[in-house]
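User: Hi! I'm working on a homework problem where we have to compare a predicted structure to a textbook description. Could you give me the structure for the chain below?
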Amino acid sequence: MELLDFTVRVACAVAFGFFIGLERQLTGHAAGIRTNILVSMGACLFTLFSVLMGAPDMTRIAAQVVTGIGFLCSGIIFKEGINVKGLDTAATIWCTAAIGVLCSSGKLLFATVAAAILLAVNLLIRLVEDKIRPAAHTEE
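Assistant: Happy to help. Predicted structure tokens:
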């Protein structure tokens, strides 16, 4: 792998992490720009390390990223009485790591599509939830 290819893959992971984090920060969530950049970049770098070292199967590292990010995400989820908070943020971070892994594999078009869908889900589904939530609360 050449330095330019390495740089493009890491830069894409950082860019996707930035846009995902920007959405989270603008909507008032705890894990914002820096967190999402670092998660995406870290997932990308760990997976690229296996490529640079000539490992025959980079999916083994990707599997460990899934486990590690899952552990990180478990610290984001809190239960307060009957309410659970942080599930959406944890799921977003988990997806951001997957996008970083996609970037490391050089599948930049797939990473772009995944990031766009993640942003659309976080932005558009929130609108749907806001329409549904008031109706659910009126029955209490």
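For your comparison, note the following. The mean pLDDT is 91. Strands lie at 78-80, 83-85. Good luck with the assignment!
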